[in-house]
Amino acid sequence: MISEKQRSAEAACEYVQDGMIVGLGTGSTTEFAVKKIGKLVRNGLSIRGIPTSDATKILAESEGIPLIDFSETMSIDLTIDGADEIDANLNMIKGGGAALLREKIVASASREEIIIVSSSKLVQQLGAFPLPVEVVPFGWQFVFNQLESLQGNPELRLKQGQPSMTDQGNFIVDCNFRKIEHPEQLEQHLNMIPGLVENGLFINLCTRMIMADGENIIIKNRNLN
Questions:
Q1: Do 69 and 171 belong together in one domain?
Q2: Judging by DSSP bridges, how do beta strands 76-81 and 21-24 pair with one another?
Q3: Number of domain units in the chain
Q4: 134 is catalytic
Q5: 152 and 114, same structural domain?
Q6: Catalytic residue among 4, 63, 85, 103
């Protein structure tokens, strides 16, 4: 039986066209998309990919997908990525896989950002999933204190008892806001904290959500007017 993750991922791949530069997201759902794109490439599709993490880079290379970076382009035609939470306005929390910095750069450079999710990721209000923020190791305690002042209930993400490191060599702090009533305002507050490199709120970046709900595919487009 095909999972919802695989169903949504493979539906998104139908939007990939010959000659595109494609952003390749990170996470268990996006892995299905990368593998599907790899199969399409082996069958003659001509695209170039920009991966959002070292893990995705390794997978894409194993699938035979040609890769480039921002030294070769400033614009991405289409990115396929997942989300930890997404609301009815297509605002998201991302970063459970610690790739939020590269994911936001790639999303911001993309003409179209397709977010692929299973039905469990759709929420009425963001915040049940802890909001990841990426911080530089120097002075991370200062950032932690600022997050406490915002009632973020921060926790330093650990791996085998040591701070979990991102591909950029930074730390991840997970914030338990529980309910985020004004995500745009919170994003602005977080961006003003020195030492906080990026946050996992992705506002007005998703242009199309493809959600699998059982055997059904639900597509929602963001109103760009």
A1: no
A2: parallel
A3: 2
A4: no
A5: no
A6: 103
